[in-house]
Amino acid sequence: MSLKTLSLEYLLRRSSIQSGKVPALFMFHGYGSNEEDLFSFASELPEELMVFSLKAPYDLEPFGHAWYAINFDAEQGKWSDDEQAKESRDKIVTFIDEAIDAYDLDKDNITLLGFSQGTVLSYAAALSYPEKVKNVIALSGYINENILIDNYAGKNHKNLSFYVSHGQVDQVIPLEWAQKSPEFLKKLNIPTQYQEFPIGHGVSQQNFFSFKKWLEEHL
Q: How far is residue 110 from each of residues 21, 24, 68, 177, measured CA to CA in Å?
């Protein structure tokens, strides 16, 4: 069965559920990667899930893709294009709505799984539009408050749950940035499982089995 054309390119692993509303998981890769990266997890995830792995909209040279530009400046150091990030946040939300309609998904059982820059966007989409998301698996990322919608704190986040993890020797995104997430989420009354692993900027086998177990318990 061919893929339906939606507003972003994606890979799909279909659900084992033949009829009725289908729970879904949406994957968002990191800067410079592509939709095939996280999709390697798909075959190991609960079979009832419809798994979408999205390709970020901005092309990088000579290859790879990004959700927003990261610029390296001698004076400012490394900085992110927050306006592009906001655009990608809204593209993600639009894609989820499209996928719900196109594949008859359960709109009340949507999970986001991000890595690095994909996690930054997963936070932004879920915290800005909590009515659209149930679970978030936030791997090796952080919360960028600048790309949340203005009135996010006034929204109802009671149906959200987060799994957050980070490498203790991450050379790309500082551990301290991730360590701020649990307290931020607690202020919004969002239940959060936070874990650190003795790795760099990546996902260890132990990390994978940990978030998989969490996901199975939260579907």
A: 11, 5, 23, 26
Is the model's pTM score more than 0.85? yes
Section 79-103 average pLDDT:
95
Helix (H, G, I), strand (E, B) or coil at 33: strand
Rounded distance between C-alpha atoms, residue 112 and residue 51, angstroms: 10
> CA–CA separation, 57 vs 26, rounded Å?
15
Q: Residue 174: what residue type?
A: P
DSSP string for residues in 27-56:
EE--TTB-THHHHTTGGGS-TTSEEEEEPP
Q: Taking CA 93 as the corner, what is the angle to CA 101 and CA 111, rounded to the nearest 5 degrees?
A: 80
User: What would the pLDDT profile of 24-56 be if each residue is shown by its tens digit?
Assistant: 999 999 999 999 999 999 999 999 999 999 999
Query: What backbone torsions phi and psi does residue 6 show, to the nearest 5 degrees?
Result: -120, -175
* Cβ-count burial 4-21 (b if 16+ within 10 Å, e if not): eebebbbbbbebeeeeee
The three-state (H, E, C) secondary structure of 51-94, written as one string:
EEEECCCEECCCCCEECCCEEEECCCEEEECHHHHHHHHHHHHH
* Residue 113: its H or E element: strand 105-115
Share of the chain above pLDDT 70, in %: 96
Q: Residue 65 forms beta bridges with which residues?
A: 33, 59
Are the C-beta atoms of residues 136 and 163 closer than 8 Å to each other? yes
How many Å is the Cα radius of gyration of the chain?
Answer: 16
Residues 6+ apart with CB under 8 A from 205: none
